[in-house]
Amino acid sequence: MNYLKVVLIFFLLLLQGFKxxxxxxxxxxxxxxxxxxxKYVAIFEDSTGKMTLPDVINSQRFKExxxxxxxxxxxxxxxxxxxxxxxxxxxxxxxLELDQPTIDEAILYSIKPDGSITKQAEGExxxxxxxxxxxxxxxxxxDIEQGETQTFYxxxxxxxxxxxxxxxxDTKSVFESLMNKDVIYGLFFGIxxxxxxxxxxxxxxxxxxxxxxxxxxxLALALSQASLSGYAFRFLWPGxxxxxQNSVYLFPSLGGLAAMVFVKEFLQTRILAPKLTxxxxxxxxxxxxAIVAVFAGLKMLSFSVMQLNTIVGSLYVLYLSFxxxxxxxxxxxxxxxxxxxxxxxxxxxxxKDFGVFAYxxxxxxxxxxxxxxxxVLLSFALADKINILxxxxxxxxxxxxxxxxxxxxxxxxxxxxLEAKVTERTQELRASNDELNKTLKDLKEAEMQLVESEKMAxxxxxxAGIAHEINNPINFVTSNVKPLKRDVEMVIExxxxxxxxxxSDGTLEDKKQQIExxxxxxxFDYLKTEIDYLINGINEGSSRTAEIVKGLRIxxxxxxxxxxxxxxxxxxxxxxxxxxxxxxxxxxxxxxxSELPLVECYPGKLNQVxxxxxxxxxxxxxxxxxxxxxxxxxISTSANDRNVLISVRDNGTGMTEETKxxxxxxxxxxxxxxxxxxxxxxxxxxxxxxxxxxITVNSEMGVGTEFxxxxxxxxxxxxxx
Length: 721
What we know:
Elements: H1 9-12, E1 18-19, E2 26-28, E3 34-36, E4 41-46, H2 53-57, E5 63-65, E6 71-73, E7 78-87, E8 93-98, E9 105-111, E10 117-122, E11 138-143, E12 149-157, E13 162-163, E14 166-169, H3 171-206, H4 209-228, H5 231-236, H6 241-266, H7 269-272, H8 274-295, H9 299-326, H10 331-353, H11 361-364, H12 366-503, H13 508-522, H14 524-555, E15 564-566, H15 568-578, E16 587-592, E17 599-601, H16 603-625, E18 631-639, E19 643-650, H17 657-662, H18 680-690, E20 694-700, E21 704-712
Parallel strand pairs: 2-7, 16-18
Antiparallel strand pairs: 1-5, 3-14, 4-5, 4-7, 6-13, 7-12, 8-11, 8-14, 9-10, 9-12, 15-17, 18-19, 19-21, 20-21
Helix pairs in contact: 3-4, 3-12, 4-6, 4-12, 6-8, 6-9, 8-9, 9-10, 10-12, 12-13, 12-14, 14-15, 15-16, 16-18
């Protein structure tokens, strides 16, 4: 948890100071060593961020630093660092190392004695392979002739805590120092990787969530250290400047988040300190906010929130671990030791930035060392936790075995008593079973009678509808027969008279005249027209009768038990023929049929479903509109790859939610006594369910009701009673 380095920053910033006095010149004469130049620089803060080098050269606001490692705090502004170096070595080329890999921008201006200016740009805004030297730290070349003095201006800018450890040396000494740091961090990352894979292996072995959370915490910790030390930019994403600039904000927050989650699991706070767990949840939420702020481009806000939350969270977790320890969780002791070591490492790390401790490879790496020790100790703590759980399990198993043996003894003693009671109860159960079988038989007979009564009610409705429908065309035929008979008799009589005229004596002209007179007498033209009209009427009546009979044949298959491929649209039309007498010429039927495939079903049973639903819809429409017009019943069909859908929608009275809940219950009805059995929709529901289908009801009071039936095109081996 490298982000704990900020624990003491806020208490020590007041110690940092600058004085406006004459700036000393660094006379460098030692080959083979590196020298800190923190006390040889003057610093100026550019609050506008727009000042150019000439503006800065002419500025009188530089303040001399009196610290080996200048600490510039957290600021979005740019800083200019001025220093002068006199080269008294045998080398004409020195190096300047800026041991702060997370600086976003670092530009070095060299002013030669002849007034010429050279510029070198480093920072996370450039890809790693564009650097002059292959190292995570920023390294600048200082070309100074022997005995010569040059002035340098370094412009730096960063969104996080900015500390400037700057060292000058020859090429060999600088890179030896960098190599020593690589060795230290190599050991750190080696330990971290060993602990990561070790705990990951334990997780796959035990499936303990604590190990998974710890692995995630180690990973976040490693990425945080790699980002802050520059190794992530060097080895993981050298081509991504976005990751280089944002990883130092992102991964410390992720590390804090992972730490809080691990603490909850490891210390079992939900059980031992449920109220304090709420505080951990708040800290987790704040870390999540800091992570979101990074992606929103609010890096300064994210860093400030992460810093403050880390300080508060570190102290809160330490307090929480003491609370858990008092409640008997021995693993909390390991955690307290590990966490304390990490906090001490963070304290030394921060104090070295304020000059309390010397800045060297050890103090600059103390946070990584503390983190490594913490990781190892927490791994031991997890292993100890497993040992504790194993001992508890062994004790529990011993207690369980003892309890099992005691139970076995009690069972043996009770078996004798139980056998006697079982014999007694068996006799009682046999009697109860006989009584239940009789009751079940009576219930089945009652159910069959109720279903038959519903079928008889449907048959009565069918008979009434057919009688009304077939009566009209039959009456039409019978009413035309009598006048047709009369007209045919007149024609026959007229033909007899014409035959007599044709056989009589007389001229052809006289015979023609007599026939014409006879046709006038019988009004022959009208007679032909009337006969055609009567015959057409009889033909229309007989066709309508045949159509009704065909509809009846399609509908009336209630007792068929064979699976058939049927046209659903034909079944609905046949049902409408049956209920046509209920329309009273006041209810409009709107058909919106789609072309449907043939459906494997029991057509007669589906027709009974359609009739029950349509009859209820017509009843609701009549209840709303009474004797007035305006009622409408809309029937639509459609199909997809697997199912056929039938919608029956009315604009009747609608129903309440309470009625919808009881709609398919047997014997539930909203009709008056004698108008319904309450079984129609119950039977309809069971029929659709046994077809592997669904029936859905949408209704609103005063608006209407819609039944939506969905049945599969291919039937699935179901039995329909």
